[in-house]
Every structure is written in C-alpha cells, then in structure tokens.
Amino acid sequence: MSERLKELRKSLKMNQTNFAKQIGITQTAYSMIENGINPLSNRHIKVICLAYNVNETWLRTGEGEMFISSPYEQEFVKIFSKLTTETQQHLLCIIKELLKIQNEFVNKEQKYDAE
Hints:
Blueprint: H1 2-11, H2 16-23, H3 27-34, H4 42-52, H5 56-61, H6 71-82, H7 85-114
Helix pairs in contact: 2-3
C-alpha cells in the first residue's frame, strides 16, 4: 500500500508535507507510512479516499482505477467502448464542438454578468 500511496501523492503533484496536512498527520508520520515503517490506519484511508476521490479498493489492493469516476463517466466509457472506431471518431468531433459552444456560452454569460 505504501507504494500506491506514494504513486497517488505524486499523481496529485503534492509533497509529503501538504499531503500529510490534508489527512491530518505530520510529515514525519506520513513519511514513515509511505516508507512502509508504519501502517496506514483505516481512518486515514477513508480520509484519503474522500478527500481525493480515490478508489479504496485500488488503495488497499492495487485493483481497479486509482480514482473513482462519476456514474456519468462510467456509463459514457461503457457506451463509447461498444462503438466502432469510426463512430468513436465522429463522437469525439461532436463532443469537441459541444465544448466550444459551451465555452462560448459561458464567456457570453460572464460578459453579461459583468455589465
């Protein structure tokens, strides 16, 4: 688990001090956990998973994805994986256009709110 904890911290681009502070322990205590000297308590596992949207199964066992995706993302991935390559490419083009439209809409709203 200590290797996954280190991998998680690095993927979040955090140093030991800031990561430890977020879960309520000192940098020294965290370092001892990350180096495998002390175990990570169940309480701190829960805090890490809640604070960083981490998959608890991944943290404990290494199985599954590091982060928990939203139900919408999970459904999208299931559907997307069933499409043909050509359909996936078309869908990506549509999604990119939707993102542009959304950004334009948000920018117009912000300009309107500022006036």
